[in-house]
Amino acid sequence: MEICIYIFDCFNSKNYDDLQINLTKSNLNENNLKSFTKSDQNLLSSKTNNQKKNLNKNQKKNLNKNQKKNLIKNTFQFLDDIDEVESDNENENQNQIENLNENQIENQIENQIENQIENQNENLNENQIENENQNENENQIENQNQNENLNQE
């Protein structure tokens, strides 16, 4: 009986938040609510339903806010990942270009050396043939001269 009076005082003061707190503190269950008048029950039920609705709305708002935050966070993370991959690709491309340039330079040097050696060999062969021909000619002339000398004797 004392609890009911306390609750009616809350209704009379029109402070429904206090009513909610006082109900919680007194640990009233559904059986205690039967002592209220029908209008008091409706008022309490209406207030509780409104609080539930507001709680659901706030939960949805918070959920939406969290979803948006997560979406934004994930989007930025995705963009960062893309930048990182692009940067890695650029570095890889740059490395490939540098390696290609190094390889081209090495190949050019090798080709130049090979060409030079080949040219030198050709020149050496030509000179050798020319020298051999000249020696042969000289030998022939000398032999001829010797033969002539022998014939004259």
Which features does this protein show?
mainly alpha, 2 domains, disordered N terminus, 4 helices, coiled coil, 153 residues
Please give the structural blueprint.
Layout: H1 2-13, H2 16-26, H3 30-33, H4 38-152
Helix pairs in contact: 1-2
Keywords: Coiled coil
Coiled coil: 103-153
What would you say this structure looks like, in words?
This protein is an all-alpha fold and 153 residues long. The chain folds into two domains: 1-75; 109-153. It contains four helices and no strands. It has helices at 2-13, 16-26, 30-33, 38-152. It is rod-shaped.
Tally of separate domains: 2
Strand content: under 5%
Number of helical stretches of at least 4 residues: 4
Q: Largest sheet at a glance?
A: none
Termini separation (Å)? Answer: 172 Å
H/E element sequence: HHHH
Summarize the structure.
The protein is an all-alpha fold.
